[in-house]
Design goal:
Layout (H helix, E strand, L loop, with lengths): L4 E6 L5 H8 L5 E7 L3 H10 L4 E3 L1 H6 L5 E4 L6 H10 L3 E4 L7 H14 L3 E3 L7 H11 L6 E9 L19 H18 L2 E9 L4 E3 L9 E3 L5 E8 L4 E7 L6 E9 L2 E5 L10 E3 L16 E2 L11 H12 L7 H20 L3 E2 L22
Parallel strand pairs: 1-2, 1-4, 2-3, 4-5, 5-6, 7-12
Antiparallel strand pairs: 7-13, 8-11, 8-17, 9-10, 11-12, 13-14, 14-15, 15-16
Length: 375
């Protein structure tokens, strides 16, 4: 491949705005088409961002200048749209989750492999300077050998602010599948694959109420657990505890702590591209009258802060260089397998062994510059 990678976007909803803003600013990619089931919406987005072609999803797939399709459709359509793109000979970047069931997603990966094209899967927050800096620090031994991890996402629920929140409480969502990809992708990238999970879930309310927008006051069913607690066992021997809740009066987002033999580190919110990184060292031996005060040592983020679209850019450069990209379809599938296994465990009360694995997730090259022209 020579020159910028040609990109077509399918799905012109809210999330397409940030993708278009970023992808049109990267010299190594060129957005050539936008498609949506509502072609007028696709045309409006294309005009706003100076993209020449717009129309239906089929128009994007038929465009010979599109090398890679960015799949921004709803989760229930992810596999169908990604499969159609692969059949058209395109690489694929898909929003999370990569799919909603193992068999269809496994077949999708096999289809891409047979076609000689690549799949990348959100989240690409893994490529942000916050997570990349923290991962480098862990790998250099700042906290010694990683021993165990904790993570937490707690909120009262998106029904308090979203004008149409029912889909976030339906199959394929809930806090586990909606927010879990950020947390489990980050942890797998740090510690490697997860070998087993034990989980418990609850659904305190079977109906929720819309509080904002034109449908305020309407109720809708809660189809999946709105609070899930997960215990993970990593293949390398560490373990972790994770809380994902739409039922918490305490709003607390983005908590990831990794505890090692020589210290504890807090990592940035995995749903953000930057954030606080800091660690503490163990206390010494306590003497009478001593106070257990620990000094936080701050680590500044290193690198350019951009946002969604970094995964597409990394794929473009990786394809040209013939190297693996970072946020792979295999990583997306393993994280999906972990989350579906947690669902099964919360239903059966049994520990579930994870059937999939994933290769070590590489770091970005130091000095990675999204605004450099390299192709």
């Amino acid at each position: 491949m020579t020159g910028p990678l040609g990109v077509g976007i399918i799905g012109a909803g809210v999330i397409s705005q940030t993708y278009l803003e970023n992808l049109t600013s990267f010299p190594d990619v060129r957005v050539v088409a936008v498609g949506d089931l509502l072609p007028d919406r696709a045309r409006a987005k294309a005009d706003e961002h100076g993209v020449g072609a717009a129309g239906t999803p089929d128009d994007v797939l038929a465009n010979p200048d599109v090398d890679l399709v960015v799949n921004l459709t709803i989760p229930q359509a992810h596999v169908e749209v990604s499969s159609a793109a692969i059949a058209a000979g395109k690489h694929v970047w898909t929003e999370k989750p990569i799919g909603l069931d193992r068999d269809a997603t496994r077949s999708l990966l096999a289809q891409a492999d047979a076609a000689g094209v690549r799949i990348g899967s959100a989240p690409d927050t893994l490529l942000g300077p916050g997570f990349q800096t923290a991962k480098r620090a862990v790998q250099t031994g700042v906290i010694g050998e990683p021993l165990f991890v904790q993570s937490s996402f707690q909120t009262q629920g998106p029904d308090l602010w979203h004008p149409d929140p029912a889909f976030l409480f339906a199959r394929g969502a809930g806090p586990l599948l909606d927010m879990g990809p950020y947390y489990f992708s980050a942890l797998v990238s740090l510690l490697g694959p997860i070998a087993g999970v034990t989980a418990r879930g609850s659904r305190p309310r079977l109906e929720r109420t819309i509080h904002t927008g034109p449908r305020a006051g309407e109720t809708f069913p809660v189809e999946v657990p709105s609070t899930v607690q997960v215990l993970t066992s990593f293949a390398a021997g560490q373990h972790g505890t994770h809380l994902l809740s739409f039922d918490s009066a305490l709003e607390r987002h983005g908590v990831i702590e990794i505890h090692g033999s020589e210290g504890t580190m807090v990592l940035p919110d995995p749903n953000r591209f930057e954030g606080r990184i800091a660690y503490v060292k163990p206390l010494g031996v306590f003497r009478d009258g001593m106070k257990p005060e620990q000094e936080w040592i701050e680590i500044p983020n290193e690198g350019e802060v951009v946002g969604r679209g970094l995964g597409v850019l990394d794929m473009a450069r990786a394809i040209a260089a013939g190297r693996p990209h970072i946020a792979t379809g295999e990583l997306g599938f393993h994280v999906l397998d972990v989350m579906l296994s947690a669902e099964e465990s919360s239903t059966t009360g049994q520990t579930v062994k994870i059937g999939s694995t994933v290769a070590p997730v590489p770091l970005l090259d130091e000095g990675f510059d999204p605004f450099a022209r390299t192709l």
